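Need the bound structure for magnesium ion, inputs here:
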Amino acid sequence: PTAPARAADKVTFGTNWVAQAEHGGFYQAFADGTYAKYGLNVTILPGGPQANNRLLLPVGKIDFYMGGNMLQAISSVVEEIPTQVVAAMFQKDPQVLIAHPDVTAFEQLKTRTLFISKEGLASYYQWLVDAYGFSEDQVKPYTFNAAPFLVDKNSAMQGYITSEPYAVEQQGGFKPTLFLLADYGFQTYATTIETRNELVKQNPDLVQRFVDASIIGWYNYLYGDNAKANALIKQDNPEITDAMIAFTIARMKEYGIVDSGDTASLGIGAMTDARMKGFYDTMVKAKVLEPGIDIAKSYTLQFVNKGVGKELAPK
Amino acid sequence: MRVPGMNAATLDLLPRAEADGAPLLRLSGVGKRFANGVTALEGLDMAVREGEFVSLLGPSGCGKSTALRLIAGLTEPSEGRLDWDEDETARRGRERHSIGFVFQDPTLMPWASVFGNVHLPLKLAGVGRREAEPAIMEALELVGLAAFRDAYPRELSGGMKMRVSIARALVTKPRLLLMDEPFAALDEITRFKLNNDLLDVWRRLRCTIVFVTHSVFESVYLSSRILVFRARPGRVSAELVIDPNQPRDETFRTSPEYAGLCRETSLALARAMDAP
Amino acid sequence: MRVPGMNAATLDLLPRAEADGAPLLRLSGVGKRFANGVTALEGLDMAVREGEFVSLLGPSGCGKSTALRLIAGLTEPSEGRLDWDEDETARRGRERHSIGFVFQDPTLMPWASVFGNVHLPLKLAGVGRREAEPAIMEALELVGLAAFRDAYPRELSGGMKMRVSIARALVTKPRLLLMDEPFAALDEITRFKLNNDLLDVWRRLRCTIVFVTHSVFESVYLSSRILVFRARPGRVSAELVIDPNQPRDETFRTSPEYAGLCRETSLALARAMDAP
Amino acid sequence: MSTSPLRWLLPFGVLAALILAWAAVVKLNNLPPYVLPAPGKVLETLIEDRAVLFASMLVTLKTTVIALLLAVAGGAALALLFASARIVEFSLFPIAVILQVTPVIAVAPLMLIYLSTDAAVLVCAWIVAFFPVLSNTTLGLKSVDPNLRDLFRLSGATRWQTLAQLKLPTALPYFLGGLRIAGGLALIGAVVGEIAAGSAGQGSGLAFRIVESAYRLNIPRLFAALLLISLTGILIYAGLSLLSWLVLRRWHESELGGRA
Amino acid sequence: MSTSPLRWLLPFGVLAALILAWAAVVKLNNLPPYVLPAPGKVLETLIEDRAVLFASMLVTLKTTVIALLLAVAGGAALALLFASARIVEFSLFPIAVILQVTPVIAVAPLMLIYLSTDAAVLVCAWIVAFFPVLSNTTLGLKSVDPNLRDLFRLSGATRWQTLAQLKLPTALPYFLGGLRIAGGLALIGAVVGEIAAGSAGQGSGLAFRIVESAYRLNIPRLFAALLLISLTGILIYAGLSLLSWLVLRRWHESELGGRA
Ligand SMILES: Nc1ncnc2c1ncn2[C@@H]1O[C@H](COP(=O)(O)OP(=O)(O)OP(=O)(O)O)[C@@H](O)[C@H]1O
Ligand SMILES: Nc1ncnc2c1ncn2[C@@H]1O[C@H](COP(=O)(O)OP(=O)(O)OP(=O)(O)O)[C@@H](O)[C@H]1O
Ligand SMILES: [Mg+2]
Ligand SMILES: [Mg+2]
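Answer from helper R.:
Posting the output first, comments after.
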């Protein structure tokens, strides 16, 4: 497309955690000038240990927010918060249960101590209770530190498949057994792009440009030259190492976190009504969500499923 | 010039006729009951006239300090009233430091030096350190503590602390001096000297002094009038008047009149002790 | 029985011959310098004999309280030595309460009632409230404060606080009583009464008393020996001995011997004031 | 203490004014509930969810009270130890300071390895609350009237007697001051401890309700939980102030007010 | 203050003993570094990552110092306000208590809506630190010697003079005690504030290093950060104690030690 004549639109994108490879696509679009090409002057605002940036979206301090999974998006409908999901970068939630190598079957986890965060307990764990008969009694708090899990051989813990297993492998010196919840029926999208309803209505073009550029960023991050993006990530978060980044990217590819299923036909960012409904029904059954919520308000398919950037994927 | 002219009279329980001028302040039927039920004063009638040196004498715990605090306005009577001369009230509005108070305890600020403690009332009136220094040093000189100007209260002996307190009360040259046993902790020689110094101050400043003491001798030597309080609940049980023009010096102290007055006062005190 | 037998002597600067028994304690060449450089005592030589009533007299700030604190072991001499009789040291090991101390300030515990304050030394010796009550009430009776047993220190007058402090020192019937101006805040009549009561206690208990006072009269009336201190740096500048068998009563107080002794003491004090 | 009704009404008046101001701010700026819910809405939520919230409050309150008791015991005991000799104080105070400044959130996982969840929460709350008691009591124990100390020495008081009958009463006003600070801190400590190391799900304290409400963006409920915490804090403070008044009213200036 | 070298050596001795014990525990139980790293390893990490860690420490220290200064100003100012009249104290103290017990972690996201990140962190640290100053200063202001108060009244002292020259000096030992408590709390407050509201990534404080290290299981580095926090805490405490000694040594019992 021809370069737009007008000045680039200033937008702020808030992530939900410190800079890491899980945000790679966005950094890629920033680093390689894709956002600029789409007439956007993007500021990436990394989140902190607490999901702080969330409330900044409805009050207009940021324009786009990297949502965790669909549960929170649906909660927004319940709480009448005027935001919605406009794209889903992860087809699978990277949420994983990490167990010691002696565990081979998902069912075995029911007898283990599980380190689960409070947020996890309020969300997917309720589904585990309902669908697999897990119990709250076996839970101990997960504080984003794997040491208790490593010490207690009879335990498992939550994590992101792209992150925690790395630390466990490095420090524990063993390859843990991983159970990706998505593969066991927790079929939410993750790492979504959320924005205000008002923006969707008044400036759909801006939203479209941001979504498209981000999707292209993700294709390039996964399949192209991601050196500049990684440098940027490391600059924002000096703690991160090349090995960690490599680990994350490998896991995202291996498990098809970003690019799998519907993306083959619809492109990265894909969402479908069917999957949304299926997820909602499961959550209602698990009593994580109440019945009767108009989930259609929580997302829109207006900006995705257009196959943008598909040509960047390896054949 | 020695004048024997002494004009003493014991007017038991009778307030003295007020021929010689309106009183500076007058307590009428004053009573003071504390929260714990103790009645310190009951039916106290007394007046203080301008330029007088009045001593209060009475058994321990009879309410002398309480009476002094009432006069100073530090506590309110539970009964009766306290009236000030109108001129005085007006003047009070204009001047600060109209009252100097020597508490029964030294009541020094532990965080300030001797100099700082004596400076306090002047400082509160806005007189700076430099400006106040001559007056402060004069007061310290008077009580013999000039050498200790930089010492802190905890480094002083009991009598020295009390002397700082006296210096502090004198430094502002107040028009009314209320002193609660100021010399009790002092040796006799220092005490005699300070007695004379106080009389000197009284005469020079023409101020009014209300003075609590336990020493009959001191009260006779110093005062122009002595009020003897009876035991709790306190009130005036006897009054003695001494000619204020009588020069006070060693000759007076050894005179038979002095001895007679002392005996009389002692007797009044003894009678006050077992008043009903 | 009135005996004129009085055995007064002014032995300026000379320690008295010790014919009548080994001293209970002896200070030899004692000096005390404080951290701020003030020398309170210098070359103090004095002894206290068993069963004596010694008064210390001297100008304000000359080191009397410091000497008392040295004797009590509350502070260490910077120079010289303090020796106790060997028997006494042994006895001290067995008994508690061998020393009763009346501080110059009342030094009461603000959180305890009058009863509780007087109870303290007994309580520290393990005597319970019930058991100690008769002794406590006797001591309070003595100082005339039985009616105030449940009052708190802040509810007392200055003299009353001091009397509580005296009762506390007496309640254990100590063998050595150190008193720092105990009666300074009391009216003369209460003071006379307590003087007599103290003498009574002294005779009954056969205890030793070291007594700081500013009253020449009081020192002469009470003591068997008077030590006059000179001004800072303090040391003994005069010693007066009074026959302990002389009965102390109103007749003694009005006797010419008494007047003579007082005059002599006053003179010694005056000389001590401007000692070099 | 004056018994004028004003004395008791005014604090409520001020609180009421504050709540009205809050309501006005919400109304005038047309703030949505997820930014700042109106007080009415918070109250509504509180009443609606009372079963869950009060149950959680009891859990947190229990932790707070136990932590406070332990903080009092620990802080006072350490203060006594420190008071025994200047050198002990000097040697051990750095360790107490280290304990005080250790961020509970950082060490919670370590505690979870060796302690049960409840114990870990308690330790967190304790760490936060003990220091004011320790520090103030130490200060109090050192502020003994030197004359009274001499008196005790002369009366042949044992170390223990001097402690119990002289140093402790002297330290009492300071200790009670420290206690009033520790009361609130024990409560925050309990909440932080719950966040850092606490169990979640059913039967858990207010912290979980807060995290859960935040996760679900149910801000009115978050405020209802905060309201309960504030109420608990005020109750604890009022209780400790009353205790202080009962203990000191007969003798300490701070509770006597001006003399008549 | 005794100048014996023991006085200065012993605390270090105790700390050394503690570190040795720590090393022994690690060695004997063969603890892996992710549970409890050996002190040597922590030191190694500290030296290795000094650039990052010290930069972070400076950030945290800056927040702490500013928060402490604001806590002192705010706490003391409130205390003065409260001291002006019993009724003011009674009306406003509940609000101060509410502030004290509000869990910073819960309200930080709300603060971020209206405040910049740095300001939000500061407010968090301030909230945690101001209460001890307020509470202790209030107690001190109320502990004035009644006789001295009378003296000031008689001397016609204005409200302001009584405050500046009587109440403040009386409150000083209490205030300094509160300050010593607040020093450590400001540090924890800064850390908690950073966790709750802080920016992450470059140029951020020690809290972020801790969270990030924990997440990455780089526990030696976490301990190195904790060590720096402890050191900072001890330094702050020592500084405040020194201040206290300098100010009070000439007259207050607590800094005089026993009299000779
Ligand atoms: N704050 C108080 N609360 C209760 N009672 C008090 C208070 N202050 C004084 N009293 C009582 O009032 C009485 C008179 O006290 P006051 O101090 O006036 O006596 P005083 O004549 O000065 O005695 P002294 O010569 O011993 O100083 C005493 O019995 C005392 O117990
Ligand atoms: N803690 C101290 N630090 C420094 N100097 C002190 C200390 N205590 C006392 N002094 C000084 O020692 C000297 C003697 O004090 P001491 O209290 O023994 O006097 P005293 O004879 O009892 O006087 P008074 O009759 O006034 O009570 C005084 O000059 C005093 O300034
Ligand atoms: Mg009095
Ligand atoms: Mg003395």
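Comments: Chain E touches chain D through 77 residues (CB under 8 Å). The mean pLDDT of chain E is 84.
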